[in-house]
What we know:
The complex is a heterodimer. By secondary structure, chain A is mainly α.
Amino acid sequence: MRSTRKDFRTEFYEHYHKEAEEYDKEFMKRHDEDLNTTLIFVRLQGDAVDTR
Amino acid sequence: MTSAFIIQVHPQLQPDPNEETAALLRVLIHKIDNTTFGGDVPALPQWTGPPRTTVQVQCILYASLTASLLSAFLAMLGKQWLNRYSSVDMRGSAIERSQNRQRKLDGIIAWYFNYVLESLPLMLQGALLLLGCALSQYLWEIDTTIASVVLGVTSFGALFYLFIVVAGAASDSCPYQTPGANVIRRFSGLVRSAYALFVERSGIYSISGEYWDDVAGNTMGEIIFMTLLYPFVLPVVLVIDIFRLGRAAFRSLVAFARRAISWLFSTSPIPNQAFDDQATKLDLHCILWMLQTSLDKTINLSTLDFLREILPLSGLDSSTTSAVVVNCFNSFTSCFVISDGFTTMVTRGSEQLAGISAMCFLRAFSYLSSIESGSTIIKDVRQRYRRGFPSLIDPQDLPCPIVMGAIHSLLARPWERPHIDWRHYNPSTDELVPLSCALVQAAQFEYLRGGDDPWVPNWLVGFALRFLSQDQLPPTSVVIDCLTMIATALGCNVSDIGVVPDERRVCTSITTVSWLIPHQCAG
């Protein structure tokens, strides 16, 4: 018994959802860390503003 | 740190009140007892504005400060963008969510999101460099020795960064990668092609080359003559070159303006695409992403299964199609092993994947060749195929003989084409419909490729004849495809076959039949 087109679609998107979640988590983590580094660096420069 | 330094330098921008007080005291003392300062008569100092260096230093410092603040602002925005990307709409089915997410991801690629985020630190690095410059200039006025320390460290840092950028651009595997290296690598191809164009077109280049050739191989008198002539010829050629460059720039500007105007005033800016087409397009984008990302065999299998089932590939732009072609080709070739240069074997456990990926590749390849026959991807894939696969294969040994035979016929050199016997081929409808869809586009492509003497190869016509001569006719779409194929072989103009709606294709088929009947009678 062959599956119909609908089945292929749902099966594919189940896989897709799983894969996308993993990929996005990694993507977010990478960029978030990059931005945090930038912000820390800026704070180093900006600390003096507060101590003024 | 920058701002602390600014506070330090800032008072020098205003007249120093202490100095004025001291001067006034001096005047007072002089009035009381004018022998205190000897012969000198103290005067009130005139404020002539801040010193030049202080102004320069302050300019650089403020530039540094604002740059770092701006980058902090952008980093904050970046965090918000990231959060917006990750917050996928929580309503809807898995399919809707996935498609939503794919749309966002496509946007991220189209708008160069990664590059923008990666080049944010560039601004901070610039701010740091500016701080170093300002510091060394300020200290130079006070004491050269201290300034030289700061200057040394700053220039060492700048040189080191420059070296890193160059090294990163020169070698992909260099771990010290920076966004600057990325930019250089992207532009180096452009520079190289510009240089090639310069060599090809420029008068200056050819004149200089000729001169040096003459110096190498001629008599003294000719060399002296050439050398005397050279300064006169050179300016003329330079003027001609500049004129050509200006003309080319002007032409491209005009072409750009014309395109922009036609885009602005185009009567139908939004193509009237059906909802179904849009959905299929998104499906295909999702499939492409999965093919590029996933390494898992079962996931690949399900992806390709779905790709094969999507019937009209129409409406897909050529860059996406090219990517689909390349990815299908990759998973197709990964299923095969060529032992001792002749025998093609399927790796164990990949039989199913081989069949499905072959079909998907065939469909995507013929679609690409129908929408963009001169594509470099087609040439590239063909070359890779000829290098990877033996020139003579026997499709009968492989799991999907017909599809493999078709692929080999399309990609191998003309004299290596295998004989495809359609007589004993009885596929299921699931296989036949996509196959005929692919073959009709392939027939079109082969016909156009023929140049002055166009013809459709016999194996394609054989397919059409085989399924039209069946007692029980195949599905309507297959019949239409077969008739269109015959129409192409007969030289009817069906050039826009990939995009015509079904009604027009039926018309084509009717034309074919009506063309055939009188000829058959005559025959």
